[in-house]
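User: Reviewer 2 asked us to show a designed sequence for the structure in our supplementary figure. I'm pasting the structure tokens here. Could you produce the per-position amino acids so we can include them in the response letter?
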């Protein structure tokens, strides 16, 4: 914490803020737990260290590029208007150089210290977040985060590949949890910021269909996400994961049903804030099963 304050005071405040460190933390959690799950609890400390390093650099770099590209609309939304570039704390050019440098370096270091497939999935995550989501879809189509959400799956795939050198069917299915989770995660927040997105002319779902229908879409998405996350337990995961996916799923469904019944910004905000803990619980449980080996004796793909 002291280092953070020192960096903060050293005028690096802008770099820390455009790195979206809370998001980096959960992305790293997804990547590391996927690494440990794929490695069945036996992974090298260097693999963990270099995955943390390269995953953090990639997420921080791509977030900086997102800040750079979105500087014109960030100034239009209250939630983002105080960010380093729109508020003048940081030059846009510096964010661009930082973002490109961190993103490119993350892929090269992953290639040199981990393996080619890990570097590929880190690059794919950057590609999906920066080019597919931020540049292409975000301002053009309401499917923006449905497709852009695959960037988050790449964090899991990078972890899985760091342990095994690639992706097997189970690894692919585990990574899809993040893809299915993202609409629930973000559409809740977009209900909170609907007017701001409309003002910035960003076609987020609630801007097009209204809060009530968006809440219904979120519930439909969660009704796909929760059973999916439970069913894949029987394809080679474990008992701790199964219990966690059921309990966390019930909690998420409860909040989503509540949001349909009471589509207020307050309920939407609380449902959004719950979404990251839901994902963290699922992936921590996945890791615990691989360390303590409580396998489910049912159908397995591998
Ligand atoms: C393209 C897909 C995604 C979109 C559009 C999206 C959107 C957002 C937005 C707009 C915020 C608020 C940021 C802020 O105001 O500072 C946010 C917060 C967050 N996102 Fe996402 N997100 C996406 C994917 C992910 C993924 C893959 C993860 C992690 C695996 C993630 C984890 C988080 C976390 C931890 C927060 C902070 C939550 C809190 O403050 O409690 N997001 N997301
Ligand atoms: C492997 C790898 C590097 C994966 C990268 C995945 C990644 C960085 C996901 C983060 C997605 C995210 C928080 C998007 C918000 O953008 P936004 O523009 O909608 O949010 P904003 O309005 O708050 O800027």
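Assistant: Here is a per-position design you can include in the supplement:
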């Amino acid at each position: 914490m002291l280092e953070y304050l020192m960096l903060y005071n050293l005028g690096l405040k802008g770099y820390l803020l455009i790195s979206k460190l809370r998001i980096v933390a959960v992305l790293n959690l997804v990547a590391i737990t996927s690494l440990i799950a794929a490695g069945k609890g036996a992974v090298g400390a260097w693999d963990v260290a270099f995955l943390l390093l390269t995953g953090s650099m990639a997420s921080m770099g791509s977030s900086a590029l997102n800040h750079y590209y979105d500087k014109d609309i960030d100034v239009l939304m209250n939630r983002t208007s105080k960010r380093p570039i729109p508020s003048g704390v940081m030059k846009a050019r510096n964010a661009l150089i930082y973002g490109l440098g961190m993103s490119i370096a993350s892929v090269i270091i992953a290639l040199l210290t981990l393996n080619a497939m890990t570097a590929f999935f880190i690059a794919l995550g950057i590609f999906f977040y920066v080019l597919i989501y931020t540049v292409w879809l975000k301002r053009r189509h309401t499917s923006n985060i449905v497709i852009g959400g695959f960037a988050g799956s790449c964090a899991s795939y990078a972890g899985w590949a760091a342990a095994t050198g690639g992706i097997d069917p189970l690894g692919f299915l585990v990574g899809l949890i993040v893809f299915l989770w993202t609409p629930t995660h973000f559409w809740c927040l977009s209900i909170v910021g609907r007017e701001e997105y409309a003002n910035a002319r960003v076609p987020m779902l609630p801007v097009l269909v209204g809060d009530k229908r968006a809440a219904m879409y979120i519930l439909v998405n969660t009704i796909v996400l929760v059973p999916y996350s439970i069913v894949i337990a029987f394809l080679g995961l474990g008992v701790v994961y199964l219990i966690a996916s059921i309990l966390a799923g019930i909690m998420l469904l409860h909040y989503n049903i509540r949001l349909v019944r009471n589509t207020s910004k307050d309920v939407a905000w609380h449902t959004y804030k719950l979404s990251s803990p839901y994902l963290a619980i699922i992936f921590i449980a996945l890791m615990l099963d691989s360390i303590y080996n409580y396998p489910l004796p049912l159908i397995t793909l591998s």
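For the response letter, you might also mention the following. The two ends are 43 Å apart (CA to CA). The longest helix spans residues 265-292.
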